[in-house]
Each structure stands twice: as structure tokens, then as C-alpha cells.
Amino acid sequence: MPPSACIPRKTQGKGTVLMPISLSNGPFPRAASFFSRSLHPHITLGRNRASQNLAMNTFAAAATPPMPPSTKKTVKVVIKGRVQGVFFRDWTVQNARELGLNGWVRNRRDGSVEALFSGDPNAVNEMVEKRCRVGPPAAAVTALNAFPSNEDPGQGFERKPTM
């Protein structure tokens, strides 16, 4: 059985043992009861294959290390149109927090709104392409320019003073 189909299991004083993920359907169907008694004193497998698979898959899921965190994406956005005086910043703060993004939003003296969004790439794309292009009900977005940024977004999402 290839090592990729096995779970490393450390035993007391016996080193590391590679245990097949699905013992009852593999090349060693009788090994399930052996492994359940000798390596897993807290897991008792049933007599039928369905309960054996359920118990082994539950153990395999618990032994699987967590997925690595997704890479973060940071984007600076300038939004033009009727975007000031229509609660665009408050709306942006609320939506960014719903999506779990970090960053900030502020009005600019030229009448536009500038924002920095950082977090999960899918959430950043959702915020920029689907939400900010439309804005709150009273807004009228005429242009949206987004570009990658290396700026530190800080923790959480906040409203900054006008620049």
C-alpha cells in the first residue's frame, strides 16, 4: 500500500507505524480488528464493513492536518460617481466586515471614495467586483479602479478620515 494511503500513527514506545486509511476494503481485510485493538484503544470498530469504514474515516478526518491558510490578496480601490453623502463608507465597512476583510475606507477631496481591502482572494473579488461596483442604494458608481497594493491593512476594517 503506498504511503500516501496511510496515516502516520505514533505509538507508545514503538515508534511510528503507517496504518492504511481503509483497512476493511484494502488488501488486508482482517487487519482492521488487529489495528483497532493494538493501536487504537479508544476506537472500537463494529463487525460490519459500513461501521468499520465510518470509524476509520472518522479517525482519518481527525488525523488530517488542517489545510494551509489561503494566500491573502490586498487591493486598493478608487470609486467614482455619486459616492459621497450616500453612506457609501458605512455601507463599505459593514460589507467588508461581513466578508471578514481587513482594511479601511475614506472619502477623498476630489469626491471619490478610496478603500483598501485585504483577505481571502474570493472575498476581496466579491467586495470589489460585485458589491463596490453597485454600492449602496443611493449611490451611482460611474468608475471603479482597482490595483494590487503592498500597504498594511491592519486588523479589522475601519473608516478613515477624508484625505
From TrEMBL:
<dbReference type="InterPro" id="IPR017968">
    <property type="entry name" value="Acylphosphatase_CS"/>
</dbReference>
<comment type="similarity">
    <text>Belongs to the acylphosphatase family.</text>
</comment>
<protein>
    <recommendedName>
        <fullName>Acylphosphatase</fullName>
        <ecNumber>3.6.1.7</ecNumber>
    </recommendedName>
</protein>
<dbReference type="InterPro" id="IPR001792">
    <property type="entry name" value="Acylphosphatase-like_dom"/>
</dbReference>
<dbReference type="GO" id="GO:0003998">
    <property type="term" value="F:acylphosphatase activity"/>
</dbReference>
<dbReference type="Pfam" id="PF00708">
    <property type="entry name" value="Acylphosphatase"/>
</dbReference>
<feature type="active site">
    <location>
        <position position="89"/>
    </location>
</feature>
<feature type="domain" description="Acylphosphatase-like">
    <location>
        <begin position="74"/>
        <end position="161"/>
    </location>
</feature>
<dbReference type="InterPro" id="IPR036046">
    <property type="entry name" value="Acylphosphatase-like_dom_sf"/>
</dbReference>
<feature type="active site">
    <location>
        <position position="107"/>
    </location>
</feature>
<keyword id="KW-0378">Hydrolase</keyword>
<dbReference type="InterPro" id="IPR020456">
    <property type="entry name" value="Acylphosphatase"/>
</dbReference>
